[in-house]
User: Fold this.
Amino acid sequence: MAVSRPDHPSLLPALLAAPDPAERVPRSARDWAVDIACFVLAVLFGGFMLFATSHGSSGVHHPPRLPDVLIGALGCLALWWRRRHPVELAVALGVVSLASASVSGAGCIALFTVAVHRPFRTVAAVAVVHLVTGAIYTAVFPDPTESYWVGVVWGVVVSAAVVAWGMFVRARRQLILSLRERALRAEAEQQLRVTQARQQERARIAREMHDVLAHRISLLSVHAGALEFRPDAPPTEIAKAAGVIRASAHQALQDLREVIGVLREDATEDTPERPQPNLGDLPTLIDESRRAGMTVTYENRLHDVDAVPGALGRSAYRTVQEALTNARKHAPKATVSVIVDGSAGTDLTIEVRNPLVNAASGIPGSGTGLIGLAERAMLSGGRLEHGPTPDGEFRVRAWLPWRGETTPAGAPGGAA
Assistant:
């Protein structure tokens, strides 16, 4: 009997049961072949039993031939509905076998169908019906050439063989469907892992683009604003500001090319990552901010900057970069204080403070930079706090775990 392939793992129990009449589907070519084969087997076996019982050597009485043939033919035709009503059909054929030997083939096919599609408790009950009717038939129409118990034993052997065959087919189908279910689940989990990896990579690239470009573009905005509000400035200052704008724009484009390059080609293990900033680059970052007109004080309390692991140094650099960008946006005339402290085995602490002011530079910002910094600190195993202090300042403070690794600060060591 054919079974359609499951479209979803949750369909496995339904496939092992007979289809609901209200949800039956057209028979496939395989279903037609199996049904025809079952009909032919039932006819052949029933004809053999009819021949055997009609040509006994001692002239023993058997069921009348015409009713026997009619019942057997109807039983074979009834196999057409064995998928929809397997239990009912098997019980009915077992009962009518009391008056027909030719229906025994159809009865075996029906019992086999029950063994394939129903649990063992139901199969055992139907098998008992067939054994009882077989024992009664043997008692009513005995064969003088063999003992009564031999006939009963033959009935038990045939029924047991049919049930065992059906249970084997059921177990094999369950195994195949279980393996298919595992394969589908594994494929779905693999697709989920791929999707999550893509999302994480996109989020990493988005953070990188924000950290790099927000700093450069804020510098451009500050210098462009100075030219806008001081059109009467000396030509030397205008040329100097224009040069800074050109250099910042060029650097922003270069940074953008480097970040987008990650999307164009898959990096291999032999492909070195582009140079990443670290704590050693903080003085250059602060000088850029000073040239943009900011007042920045920098206090480095570390004994050896080169001892800071590369990934940790990059996270610290990005934290200072984003904090300076926010200060340039929201407190352009305020003095910003940057303090870096810590030691191996404890935490690397980054603190950026500036007085709260009401003025703003007009540079747009949505606050997503601080959210990204908090996420970066969390992924590193640390934490970040930001907000006003009782002293009337705005403070950004990050604690990043420093486990004492001594990866060179300039060496590649993971995503920034």
